[in-house]
Amino acid sequence: MIRTIAFGALVIFSSTMARPSLVPAGRAATAPVSPDPALINTCLITNNVQKLSAFYERVLQITPQKSGEDYVEFRTTAGTLALFSTFAQEKYIPGSATAGENHSSILEFRVANVDAEYTRLQDFVKSWVKGPTTQPWGTRSIYFRDLDGNLVDFFTPAPRR
């Protein structure tokens, strides 16, 4: 089960509206229009886009799409993780966000094999919250923090019994 990331709604709306030129070519034009909301982008505000981008590039094994020094996107099959600089956020929407202070959401990524990811990330991730564990809701998960302290969950649906 993927839970919605609570804090992102305002930041996502405001940051995508403030940077219309950063919407990938064709995404807005070809996306089907639905009356239902669709969470497609989560944007983290950070004091160091380059450093956090390098972290996620290694963790996700995805090369980010960059738009200048202030913004990068990691496009996954389900949605996009975006990183935006504190400086630029303050320029476009003053007083709207503070980097590195999120303690109320989890970035969740479905992966093929949680245990293999745990082994792969051992020498790289410095802040582990919980090792491989099968959760009561039916996922096998690992929890760790990124360089800004955001909580990340890599999970695999647990085999049915």
Strand content: 25-35%
N-end to C-end Cα span: 17 Å
Radius of gyration using CA atoms only: 16 Å
**Residue share in helix:** 25-40%
Question: Going across the major beta sheet, what is the strand order?
Answer: 1-4-3-2
Largest sheet data? 4 strands, mixed
Determine the CATH topology of the largest domain.
Answer: Signal recognition particle alu RNA binding heterodimer, srp9/1
Helix/strand class: alpha/beta
Shape: globular
Please give the CATH architecture of the largest domain: 2-Layer Sandwich
Number of domains: 2
Quaternary structure annotation: single chain
Q: Element order, helices and strands?
A: HHEHEEEHEHEEE
The gist of it:
This protein has helices at 8-18, 27-30, 49-60, 86-92, 114-121; strands at 41-46, 65-66, 71-75, 80-85, 106-110, 127-134, 139-145, 151-157. With 161 residues, it is an alpha/beta fold.
What features would you highlight for this structure?
161 residues; alpha/beta; Signal recognition particle alu RNA binding heterodimer, srp9/1; 2 domains; 4-stranded mixed β-sheet; 8 strands; disordered N terminus
